Amino acid sequence: MSESVVFDRAAEFYDRTRALAPATMDAVVGRLAGELAGRGRVLEPGVGTGRMALPLAAAGVEVIGLDLSVPMLRELIAKRGDSEARVPLVRGDATRLPFPAGTFGGAYVVHLLHLVPDWAGVVAELVRVLRRGGVILVEIGNIAGGIAQEINERFERASGLERRHPGLIDGPERLDAEMGLHGGRMRLLEPIVETHTVRPDRFIGRLEENIFSWTWTLDDATRKRAAAEVRAWAVEQLGPLDRPQTVTVTMAYRAYDLP
């Protein structure tokens, strides 16, 4: 049984709570397609609802998706329908990929490695199933600045969490080093930045309502107590919590070229 965080409970609300603005999404898809198109079959472990896979397939990338969560895969199938951008799917564990060596020309990983305790095993498996000269693209996680970051950090402290995620949380340098052990040469792709507004009351409410995976280990009483503490701080700092605040989110991908 995998110790990775499985997103069964998030299938119904995942897309609407992780959405990017259309222009931002187009920019991300264009950036990834520019790296992956023409490489033959490309793997997305942790494909989820196809939030990235379906638009990439529509852009001409031959994506194969893998995920542990059946409910998430069902959401992808419902969205995929009979469209031309079909994404073949496999239920499986990213630490034990069910593919022969050299199957893929590329792979991309979005918001996954922080959820997997054996994230180094995921790296090793990706290298194994890629052909020589392949590329692995990794976004460790959207980097959110401003009030969203402050609220997350204060909620984490107020709830008593010692570790927000079970996998890679120590920064990209550890990933660079691990990829380097496999001969991967790192390139930084140009970041894509989105600026939008959030209402603090709604953002805190999502934490209290258990929308994000890092709060799933907390019981209801702990989340409510932490949310009340953060609301009190936010009112003191910001005034009315229904007043929109600016948030900047950076999508920063690292490319690892394999020998």
Short synopsis of the structure:
The chain is of the alpha/beta class and 259 residues long.
Notes on the structure:
The protein is an alpha/beta fold and 259 residues long. Helix content is 38%, strand content 21%. It is built from 9 helices and 10 strands. The protein has a 7-stranded mixed sheet with strand order 3-2-1-4-5-10-7, with helices on both faces. Strands 6-9-8 form a 3-stranded antiparallel sheet. Helix 5 (119-129) links the parallel strand 4 (104-110) and strand 5. It is globular and about 55 Å long.
Q: What name does the CATH topology carry?
A: Rossmann fold
Strand order of the largest sheet: 3-2-1-4-5-10-7
**How many domains is the backbone divided into?**
1
**Morphology:** globular
Per-chain topology:
Elements: H1 14-17, H2 22-36, E1 41-45, H3 53-58, E2 62-67, H4 70-80, E3 89-91, E4 104-110, H5 119-129, E5 130-139, E6 143-144, H6 147-159, H7 172-181, E7 185-188, E8 192-198, H8 200-208, H9 220-238, E9 245-251, E10 254-257
Parallel strand pairs: 1-2, 1-4, 2-3, 4-5
Antiparallel strand pairs: 5-10, 6-9, 7-10, 8-9
